[in-house]
Amino acid sequence: MADPVPAHPALASGAVAVVTGGASGIGLAAAARFAARGLKVAIADLPGEKLEAAAAHLAGIAPGGTADVLAVATDVSELSDIERLEAEVAERFGGTDVLLNNAGIQPGSALFGPLENWEKVIAVNLWGIILGSRVFGPKMIARGRPGLIVNTGSKQGITTPPGDPAYNVSKAGVKVFTEALAHELRNIEGCAVTAHLFIPGFVFTPLAAGGRTEKPAGAWTAEQTVDFMLERLEAGDFYILCPDNDVTRALDQKRIAWAAGDIIANRPPLSRWHKDYAAAFAAFVKGD
Ligand code: NAD
């Protein structure tokens, strides 16, 4: 089935999209969708063959071929790399209309485990989106055109399940930063750039594969997730809360409400995973 004609000008043919973490998974799927719609696409990822291969793949999709695709070796946790990325895109394509701050890592972490993991995860997942938004944002506003800044968060930054605290902290920061960004942008007179929090469910990508070579039944593909994101961007959603094959929107809503309810009901934090509250949470989900 052909893609619907996009209504948002930033998602229309001829616009310019920048995707960090664009050499793999969700980022590559987004870049491919953008290229197929006739956007000029810049992918930013760590240097190497994966980045080159992704650029070649995208050039095969883009109507203008290699002329419409730019690959920029970038470490999103480095301010100078992000500044260079913005400048290269501006020089090549004239500016940016869509910024998908999506690069992320999940090497695992333990609360009292190696500090290095904490530093790395927060540098890439949180500083990457802060730097990207701060460097590109003012230039996108000055361009005077409708624009989109989409930051990839996670349900793990909202319901914060135990097991990977550094990742949760980084993604909770992405949520808070992006909410503040949306508020900031909507209060700038004449600003046509909006911010959006993209919250994937379980998506089968190298980051989440955990050694699996086949997509588990519960996961969505990266393409499904990106199609959902595009549909919700067209609808104007700020919170782009994606389901997957295991978790419906209704279940997500219950989990989010329960997490917020920990404060309101003065329960212990993460009570969803506390043995004394297991029955109450199960009943809440069932709707009792
Ligand atoms: P992925 O590993 O396929 O893609 C992530 C990309 O980011 C890779 O190409 C990697 O090289 C790149 N990257 C890593 N560090 C970087 C750096 N310092 N600078 C530039 N690029 C860097 O994983 P994915 O699942 O597509 O992840 C994309 C985003 O989606 C991440 O932010 C991830 O946290 C988020 N997410 C994924 C899932 C899931 O189930 N896959 C769920 C929720 C959120």
From TrEMBL:
One Pfam family, short name please?
A: adh_short
Q: Keyword annotations for this protein?
A: Oxidoreductase
User: Which InterPro entries does this entry report, sorted A to Z?
Assistant: NAD(P)-bd_dom_sf, Sc_DH/Rdtase_CS, SDR_fam
- Which SUPFAM superfamilies does UniProt cross-reference here? NAD(P)-binding Rossmann-fold domains (SSF51735)
GO molecular function ontology, one term from the record? oxidoreductase activity, acting on NAD(P)H, oxygen as acceptor
Keyword Oxidoreductase annotated: yes
Give the coiled coil ranges.
none
Q: Return the CDD domains for the record.
A: SDR_c
Family annotation (Gene3D superfamilies):
NAD(P)-binding Rossmann-like Domain
Q: Which domain of life is it from?
A: Bacteria
The entry assigns this protein to a family as follows: Belongs to the short-chain dehydrogenases/reductases (SDR) family.
This protein is called what? Answer: Short-chain dehydrogenase/reductase SDR
